[in-house]
Amino acid sequence: MITIFLTGGTGFIGRQLVEELLKEDVMIFLLVRSKSKATRVFQKKGFLNEAALHFIEGDLTKTDLGLSNEDKDRVLNTDVIIHAGGQMDIQATTQEATSVFLNGARHISEFAKRIHQLKGLQQFIHVVGYMSPFDDSNSKVAIDVFQEEHDYLKIKNPYERTKFLADLYIRQQASAVGYPLSVINPPTVVGGSTTGSTEQVAGLGLLVESMRRGLMPVIPGGNGYKLPLISNDALAKFIVQVVKLEQSCIQTYTLVPDKQHNPDISELLGVMSESMNIAAPTISVPLHFMKALMKSGISKITQIPSDGLNFITNRRFSNDLPKKIMGEDWFTKTSVMNFFPAVVADLDYRLMYPNNQHNYAFERTLNGNTVIYQIPGEGKPFILFHGLLSDGEDLFPLGLELHEQTGQPVWIADLPGLGRSPFKHEKNLIDLYLNVVKELSGKTAHGAHWIGHSFGAVILLEALAREYLDTKNTITLLQPPVAQKNSKSFNTPQLLNKWALKLSTANSLGRYLIGNGLFENIESIPKHYIAKVRSSFTSPRIVNTTLQLNRFLSKNYPGDFTKVPRSNLHIIWGDQDRHYSAPVQLGKIDVVPYGHHFPLNHPTETASYVLGN
């Protein structure tokens, strides 16, 4: 068994690393500021292992890391140190950055020295950004990193300067004392490959925020410039493999992907723009000119620090050493571009709802780049598609009711361009959504119970008409909007609609919801629903997708569904809807005394109707 002392384990990278390490024969002593907070974090993640994971209260900025005598003894008996601590804050002051990075490096290096003198330290692993100028060829620079008068790096940004000086200091100490050191240089870290979930919004999130606000009209740097990326799960797996190595010297591992898996910034912005459903920038501007503009005052307008552009580079990097450990095709298999659109949509979602708390009853995964929330169970899954002015999370209460009453699996999709799912351009807009049906139906060999609300019901109707769903499937349509009472309200110019959405107030939105019969009355609107919808209108992805789908509905319905098979079709209709009529041409309809959005505010009753109770 390997005993490990880990800093930064409760952070975005660290939590993923802990999860990967716990798959090995290890015992982890994790430096935390609060044991109770750390316990809650890992309980939520579902991998709190009291036999292998031990929390040690302390602080990187304090002498001896602020440890008790008992905890000092525990740390001094560890085999490996992994130092990944320090919050990402590119706007940190010199005092803050020095305290965390330089003083933290000094304090943890003192423990490394004492461990090595007592029993021999197997390895010190330091995780530091890929833009560090230090490597195995220049790590013996003889400067005192704590002397403020030196200007060796000539980097003004305190965050970058102190991180890189900490890298140098740790290299100096390892060389002087003689213990093995592995320095791991990851590029910008984004969310895991299975979800795209990127909790650290201070990195790539800065770029997403500028696009959300329409403040990225140009391509910084142009051809040859890149913003290298790696997923936190790929990084964690690599660190685990380094832990297993028998090191004898100082070794640097740079995890920047090969050129063919590392697109130019123009291509990257193109993917981001498509995911956000906005036009991509086409004009390139030299990076030095962009930085000068930002420093001249543009940063105050964009709220993006000029130093945020430092992560865009045309430097060349060697990744031969990581390939020797992970295999020649590792960068191909772990390329972030395979799920990058989902990362962009996730960051957009987090910027819309910074205080959103995910319901952990549902496990989140990706089907392509479409987010699917799942609860496991026995039997055919219920597959739920939401409508407009909502997302997958709004159907969680209904999904939970269906699962609790049947024990069957529940899958809830965030439809493309909405919720946490990215947009993707298709020649015919409806095909984007029918592709989700085809992909999910391919995962249900014995069929499924499909449930579509509002626009989600339209998707299922189209799928039936095109024979994408066979008789192994049953379909329930909740309020299918295919028979308009008054089509004029859809013919407002798009720009006016867009501004009406963006400038809507809580009162005006409430009046719209009640006036159109989406809910029966103000009291029936779910708590936080109006605030959530208003926040969603800060996203061009949500606004533009909503307007496009609204326009699609107004142009294409009422449609001809006379040939749609009705043997496995169930329709439930809320009679308080003031905009649409019940689609009697589709067959028998169960009428309920609710508004258009009844699956959102009456989940228990809706589940009973769906199940025929």
TrEMBL record:
GO molecular function: hydrolase activity
Pfam family, one: NAD_binding_4
Key word Hydrolase present: yes
Descriptive protein name: Alpha/beta fold hydrolase
Alphabetical keyword list: Hydrolase
CDD domains referenced in this protein's UniProt entry, alphabetically: MupV_like_SDR_e
Domain annotation AB hydrolase-1: ranges: 383-607
